[in-house]
Write a structure and sequence with these properties.
two-stranded antiparallel ribbon, mainly alpha, about 450 residues, 2 strands, 20 helices, single chain
């Protein structure tokens, strides 16, 4: 037993992976209890496992209707899993330790650094405190604003219940909702208030806590870090490109944006562009999108949110470094430059590695599910990318998954939440730096 414990605690990636796995299995047990379902019947183990993994990995994919199937206890369990998954269990554990007066060890700081994807150990505990403050403040304000809007549609108690649930779910980019019949925000497709509030919560959760910390200190420092500038510019660029693409491709589609007025079309396209990169909320019928739109959404899902956020994907910074590397190669330059800053080669190599590993995982999963699931290739690719990028949008395949398909998508959500590098580091051991370099070889590329 001690040997197993030492193996899990040997490196930060293993601690993070084992911690998330423990939360998923604990959530599965709780969701299996009769108290968790509205009918009072135990939820099947596989279904409880799938929902628990989807909530902990802040994905939002579900085969059973969250609003109608689960009881208030079940909703509470899902919300707790979403909160732990979004903030990170190490963040929550460190906050409890600080409240208890326990000193945070160097080992814990290393794990926190890996969990939050922070560049250094300096100020890591201070950042953890800020994570809690930012999360609670944003979720609290979001809950109040949602409650005020829902008061027009339901009783005060239910409006508060819905306001808290959706604020936490949307900020953590989870995408779970309580409206029933898998409607998501479809009843509010033309509601500017609900749409803009949802967009703000999703964006704030998707840019990452490091960026939120930078923005909070901007009034005193009067400058943003290079990381924050890249995240904000790339996020804005992807939101605009996604909105324009969805608006053009779906403008005349009678099953999606076609029947709406221009203002509502623009609003729906904007929300869909934002939510496609990680949140899984929607106001239109995703399975009815044209093939070109669904493929564009797959590309947006692959990029995903930003490092240190509640979202998945290869991350906006990875995309920025890759695009800059390609541009530098086209122009015949050796240095990869972003905002007049040269990127170190190790960061470029890491960006390439993350992207290639992600492509291998997605392609391999699509090939396997093409054999086990009776669905078209595009739908399978959409569902796989949604699970891996922890987005939670479905093209209609999740409800018809075979047991094998459920398990594979669960693994994809888990790997996507951890990140491919963290997952591979957790499985194996990282070798140290070699004391020698091999002779340079010459090959022809291109």
């Amino acid at each position: 037993m001690k040997k197993w414990f030492r193996w899990f605690y040997a490196s930060p990636p293993r601690v993070i992976a084992s911690g998330f796995a423990a939360i998923i299995f604990a959530g599965m047990v709780l969701l299996h209890l009769p108290y968790a379902s509205a009918s009072g019947e135990p939820t099947p183990w596989l279904e409880a496992f799938f929902v628990s993994a989807s909530a902990t990995c802040v994905t939002g994919l579900a085969r059973i209707d969250t609003g109608l199937y689960f009881s208030a206890f079940g909703h509470g369990v899902i919300l707790l899993l979403v909160q732990l998954g979004g903030l990170g269990f190490m963040t929550a554990g460190t906050l409890f330790a600080l409240f208890a007066g326990r000193k945070v060890s160097l080992k814990d700081k290393l794990i926190l650094q890996a969990s939050l994807n922070h560049g250094s150990l300096e100020g890591i505990v201070r950042l953890v405190r800020r994570v809690l403050v930012y999360a609670l403040c944003i979720e609290g304000i979001g809950a109040i604003l949602f409650t005020l809007r829902f008061l027009a549609d339901m009783s005060p108690g239910r409006a508060l219940y819905y306001g808290v649930f959706h604020s936490v779910s949307f900020f953590n980019n989870a995408g779970f909702d309580l409206f029933g019949e898998f409607r998501s925000l479809k009843p509010y497709v033309g509601d500017v208030y609900v749409n803009l509030l949802s967009i703000v919560l999703i964006v704030l959760g998707g840019v990452g806590f490091i960026v939120l910390s930078d923005l909070a200190e901007y009034r005193t420092r009067r400058r943003l870090s290079l990381h924050s500038r890249i995240v904000l510019w790339v996020s804005a660029f992807l939101i605009v490109i996604g909105t324009v693409t969805i608006l053009i491709f779906e403008y005349t589609n009678e099953n999606t944006l076609g029947p709406l007025g221009f203002g509502d079309k623009l609003l729906a396209a904007l929300l869909q562009s934002v939510t496609t990169r990680s949140a899984g909320v929607t106001t239109v019928d995703v399975p009815s999108f044209r093939d070109a739109t669904q493929f564009a959404m797959i590309l947006l899902m692959f990029v995903g949110a930003s490092p240190g956020s509640t979202g998945g994907g290869i991350k906006t910074t990875t995309f920025a470094v890759l695009a800059s590397a390609v541009w530098a190669m086209i122009r015949g330059r050796e240095d990869v430059v972003l905002f007049r800053a040269r990127m170190e080669q190790a960061k470029v190599n890491k960006a390439i590695t993350v992207t290639v590993l992600s492509l291998v995982i997605v392609i391999g999963s699509v090939m396997i599910l093409s054999i086990t699931e009776n669905q078209s290739f595009l739908i399978i690719l959409f569902e796989v990318m949604s699970a891996y990028a922890t987005v939670g949008l479905s093209a209609g395949m999740t409800g018809d998954l075979t047991p094998f398909g459920q398990i594979l998508l669960t693994i994809l959500m888990f790997v996507g939440r951890l990140g491919p590098l963290t997952f591979t580091y957790a499985l194996g051991s990282r070798s140290g730096r070699t004391l020698y370099r091999n002779a340079e070889g010459r090959i022809i590329i291109g």
